[in-house]
Amino acid sequence: xxxxxxxxxxxxxxxxxxxxxxxxxxxxxxxxxxxxxxxxxxxxxxxxxxxxxxxxxxxxxxxxxxxxxxxxxxxxxxxxxxxxxxxxxxxxxxxxxxxxxxxxxxxxxxxxxxxxxxxxxxxxxxxxxxxxxxxxxxxxxxxxxxxxxxxxxxxxxxxxxxxxxxxxxxxxxxxxxxxxxxxxxxxxxxxxxxxxxxxxxxxxxxxxxxxxxxxxxxxxxxxxxxxxxxxxxxxxxxxxxxxxxxxxxxxxxxxxxxxxxxxxxxxxxxxxxxxxxxxxxxxxxxxxxxxxxxxxxxxxxxxxxxxxxxxxxxxxxxx
Length: 319
Known about the structure:
Elements: H1 3-26, H2 41-50, E1 57-60, H3 65-71, H4 75-83, E2 106-109, H5 116-130, E3 136-141, H6 148-160, E4 164-170, E5 173-174, E6 177-178, H7 179-182, H8 188-194, E7 198-203, H9 207-224, E8 228-233, H10 248-255, H11 261-266, H12 276-299, H13 307-313
Parallel strand pairs: 1-2, 1-3, 3-4, 4-8, 7-8
Antiparallel strand pairs: 5-6
């Protein structure tokens, strides 16, 4: 199997999984709102390829399904968590915005806008203090970039020389507000340069180049014990949450953002040895696998109401 097809299969599964989640939401099976990662699949795969799950830690935003799967979280356990089922990553108690899979390197995802960024600084400080050779990476959006805690964390990472890679997913929209209307100075990379960080930009539709950049910056953080900043331009192909009205088209057109990275990458795949029919059959097999995962999760028992209380009772008091 060639590398392009293998990469497309991985990215398409992330997309198909989220489409299956969206269908489950439409059927009333998902508690709360669902925020999809559509458009950021290649970035999630690039981060997973560049990091070491044994020593590195990742924190993510409320759009965390793709990064959890890319890092290697069990799709069934992810689906169960999203659906509030007892077999979920956190027993179905955390839900769609708070996926946690430390065995894969995913320290935590967070529903508070920008809340995951200070958490990543803690992970980076732990790696430096314990001399594990690891680092931390944090995924956050252009809306979160304007949160005070994010800029404070950037300052702290620079001052303490933390091996922390800030990865800004710039889709041009903060919930439903164009980033150009809410961001002073417009250039988010200029902010990072103000903290003397290594800074790069990348196009989320060019996965080969994206992997190289993430690997290079991750290596920089590990070897120098310094923070770095990567701004990745990606589209957001849905509303703020699934089912919400969307201003995506206007904001994407304003930024000149492509409609769909997977569609663009797919154009590379047909050739003498691979027909359009072959690709359609492959996509249907992947979609069927994703639907089967969600169907299986729907049959699992719901989270136990008393599970959280029993878990809390096991915690040791802070001295």
